[in-house]
Design goal:
- There is one protein chain.
- By secondary structure, the protein is α/β, with parallel strands linked by helices.
- Helix content is about 55%, strand content about 10%.
- The protein has a 5-stranded parallel β-sheet with strand order 7-6-5-11-12, with helices on both faces.
- The longest helix is centred in the middle third of the chain and has 25 residues.
- The chain is globular, with a radius of gyration of 30 Å.
Length: about 600
């Protein structure tokens, strides 16, 4: 049953019975605020023209009618012009029975819509870092949430495997690598290639310093540094399919992909489709040629191709460099075209940091001007804030990023140490302890990142994230393990709690049922706003609520068999919803701790 619809229908029937059919007046019904008694609140002010009474008298009259004629309404109270309605325990008992019986609780019916969500999108010139971690966790979680909302979801990764930044790593390895490989160095392939990206920057800065000392301006020195000119020439040779450059590119990218796969597996994220910019940039170039013929783009004297978007409130945008090489916009046009054509998408979501807001404004506008408005109107940029550390921002070129692999390993180690100190792993085998430590470490990382609204810049402090108290992943995981312990003890004692329970509900038990009934609407709201933070907040409140209940009331030692049956069923459903909600965040919950 949809509770909001039930309450709205009951209020409408009652109001029309008292005052006649409504003529355009809108019933204003909302959930009762926590500080007041009641479940739903009717705002009576729009009805005063019909009742011809004061707000308090109107609310009282409607409340008296509803308690007399609507069996599910057990009581009401009036605060000024607000009518607070309370549903009876039998109503909530019936709702709880529906939850127990619904094996797909929280999962919406299929919508028939196909949605692609792109996340990760790494460059093959460096390993994944903390910023990529937020991107991957956010993208994967939103994909899970959209699936729960009934959509067919395609998880996509666009690998930035070409461009000047890739050539910088390749050139530095060629100049200074002495044939070093992942096997010879013992380094993951993505780390090895990232090492040479930093190496390039070191030599580039040294050359700029030499040129400025020789009399060049800093701006000219940045353009004329020999190592940069060599990288630019390497890019031209790559686009011309030079066998030597192409072979080196394939070899080093292969190292990187092997490294990425290890990190993705550790993070627990995956993809249905992987696109490579090296395979889409030519399609982007052909779209640019099409735009030139249509007069959408124009060519400058240096042979570069541009679009003038000043009349649209933007500026002029480069699409092809004078030497014919592509820019990001070129390949994004090709990738978007290919995706919509191949997959017949209804929606395309890009999970990309907020520093690219302008880029996606331009992408949508260019697609529309090329005649693909049906596509551009269904592109969403899920723009998220950057991740910062207590010591400040990260810089890839200077090698000051927090490496994703190091971060994951550190989180797991810290989780093991803290769990041991608190006795959370007592009675666990070494294998169980290792599995729980991994689960808790990753759960702490994922929850800490996903509980923050995606649009906000966030400060990540690993020390804060692993805490078994407060709004953290480990707190929720421990609550689930505690519940599973109760259910295991019931099974060991031979207590069968299946089937209907004829028991009176305490107010705290009704409150738990109310919270459970809200889960589908929270999942729907998170899907509409692409906000895993809504799921995180809900699961935390549910876990906190259950802990309070567990502290104050006996479950297994309850003497009344029917009450114990109901409490065990309620406990099992809380665990089920916690597990479901956490899975939408990509977080596993342990059976024991």
């Amino acid at each position: 049953m949809n509770i909001e619809n039930f309450v709205s229908d009951a209020v409408l029937r009652s109001v029309e019975a008292l005052y006649g059919p409504l003529d355009g007046e809108q019933l204003q019904i909302q959930k009762t605020r926590r500080e007041f008694e009641g479940d739903y609140t009717l705002v009576t002010f729009p009805l005063l023209r019909r009742s011809r009474k004061s707000p308090e008298a109107t609310a009282t009259e409607i409340g008296e009618y509803m308690t007399a004629h609507i069996p599910e309404i057990k009581a009401f109270n009036v605060i000024k012009g607000f009518l607070n309605l309370s549903l009876d325990s039998a109503f909530w008992s019936d709702r709880f029975a529906e939850i127990v019986a619904d094996v797909q609780f929280g999962q919406a019916s299929p919508t028939g819509r196909t949605v692609m969500i792109e996340y990760s999108s790494p460059n093959t010139n460096k390993p994944l870092h903390l910023g990529h971690v937020r991107n991957n966790l956010l993208g994967y979680s939103v994909a899970q949430i959209l699936k729960a909302n009934g959509h067919t979801v395609i998880k996509a990764n666009l690998v930035n495997d070409r461009g000047i930044h890739i050539c910088k790593s390749m050139l530095a390895w060629q100049l200074y690598g002495n044939g070093e490989t992942p096997a010879s160095s013992g380094m993951k392939g993505d780390h090895l290639v990232g090492k040479y990206y930093v190496e390039f920057d070191k030599h580039y800065k040294a050359q700029i310093k030499e040129l400025t000392a020789a009399g060049q301006s800093e701006e000219d020195a940045k353009k004329n540094a020999p190592i940069l000119l060599q990288a630019q020439e390497m890019l031209r040779r790559w686009e011309a399919k030079d066998p030597e450059v192409y072979g080196l590119w394939e070899k080093m990218n292969g190292w990187v992909y092997e490294g990425f796969d290890v990190t993705y597996k550790a993070l627990g994220v995956d993809f249905d489709k992987v696109y490579y910019e090296s395979q889409t940039y030519l399609l982007g170039k052909s779209l640019v040629e099409e735009g030139l013929k249509k007069g959408v783009f124009y060519r400058r004297e240096d042979n570069s191709v541009w679009i003038d978007l000043r009349e649209d409130g933007l500026d002029e945008k480069l699409l092809l460099r004078g030497d014919g090489t592509s820019v990001y916009m070129t390949q994004d046009l090709g990738t978007a075209y290919r995706r919509f054509e191949e997959n017949r998408l209804d929606d395309m979501i890009y999970v990309v940091g907020n520093e690219q807001n302008y880029h996606f404004q331009v992408l949508k506008l260019v697609l529309k001007k090329l005649g693909y408005a049906d596509w551009s109107d269904h592109i969403t940029h899920l723009s998220y804030g950057m991740v910062e550390l207590p010591e400040g921002k990260m810089k890839s070129r200077e090698g000051t990023v927090v490496d994703a692999d190091d971060l994951i390993a550190g989180m797991v180690t810290t989780a093991r140490e803290m769990s041991d100190e608190l006795g959370k792993l007592d009675g666990c085998s070494e294998e169980e302890a290792a599995a729980v430590s991994t689960m808790v470490g990753l759960g702490a990382l994922k929850y800490f990142i996903l509980k923050v609204d995606p649009r906000k810049t966030m400060l990540f402090d690993p020390r804060e994230s692993i805490d078994f108290n407060g709004n953290t992943g480990p707190f929720i995981q421990y609550t689930h393990a505690r519940i599973r312990s109760v259910l295991r003890k019931a099974a060991e004692a031979g207590i069968d709690f299946a089937g209907p329970a004829q028991a009176d509900y305490l107010p705290e038990e009704i409150d738990l049922v109310k919270s459970l009934t809200e889960y589908p609407s929270v999942v729907a709201a998170a899907g509409e706003s692409f906000a895993p933070s809504l799921i995180a907040a809900y699961v935390y409140e549910l876990a906190k609520q259950f802990n309070g209940y567990y502290h104050d009331h006996s479950i297994l030692k309850e003497e009344c068999g029917e009450t114990r049956r109901m409490r065990l069923q309620l406990t099992a459903q809380v665990a089920r919803v916690i597990r479901s909600g956490m899975s939408l965040l990509g977080i596993e919950v342990p059976e024991r701790m």
